[in-house]
Design goal:
- By secondary structure, this protein is mainly alpha-helical.
- It has one domain.
- 72% of the residues lie in helices and 4% in strands.
- The protein has twelve helices and two strands, in the order E-E-H-H-H-H-H-H-H-H-H-H-H-H.
- A two-stranded antiparallel sheet has the order 1-2.
Length: 322
Amino acid sequence: MAGGTSYSFGSGAFSRVQGNGAFTMTTGSPSQLTGYLAAWTIVFVWSFWLIVSRVAADSGLTIYDLAAMRYGLASIIAVPLCIYYKPWRGMRLTQIAVVSFILGPLYILSVFSGFLFAPAAHGGIFMNGILPLVGILIGLTLFRASPSPRQIFGAALILISAVVLAWDGTVSRSELAWVGDLLFVVGAVFFSFYVILSERWQLGAMQIIFCGTVVNAVLYLPVWALWLPSGLADAPTGPLLLQAVYQGFVPNLIGLLFIAHASRTIGNGNTSSILAAVPGGGGILGALILGESLSPISIAALVLLTVGLLISVRRRTKVLPP
């Protein structure tokens, strides 16, 4: 929307853009170089996380064990940091409650449940891939933000490719793949709200870690230990260690810190463009590591999805205060 304020909806991004949406991309400063490095690291981290989460069922661990690892193990590092930095001082109680809920058990258990029904590639497609579409819907509903024709066209491509991928996965792989896809969509909605609110409230990395890790560990771990089924005692050592390291430390700490750094240094638009590679990365790793070969129809739809992502995201020039 030339001459006014517009919104950028990306793969994990939501930002306001001034002017006509023009952008420049430079990598001259060290901070920008580290921002691009962080963004590409996230691509690999999230793509490989899809694989690790998909194979978790073969380890004997339950989805409740994985959630306990995500919150509990990460808290070993997060609690001392939070005690030192005291991130809660700059937050209202309602903000702590909302962010903790969004990054809480409902979000992560929906995602882990999705891997029980659908292949790893679908995790990247229906969690990361449809984020621009979800962002547009949230923007229209809550912020009355009209998307540009370019964003509408990109979202249409994403929607078409997602429908084709869901249909092809159900026909060629599993009759229940659509269940996993819907659970991934639920995760995408949660994550979209997290990205939107973290930017509007200008939350720092430690505030996100405090809400996403420490608060949820306090609330979830007692429930898991007392009432939820667990396969922790019988899990083989190798798979157990893999899940413990990756679920416990990578997404909750490394992932959140890196995406926060990338968004601050190179902008949400640039970060979004790079994260458009996650669905393709998940598909490639799924084929190479798990042997989850995609049909020609799925490959074509995945290419269309990536094109739609790149069309949808727009680099920002200046973020207005919330």
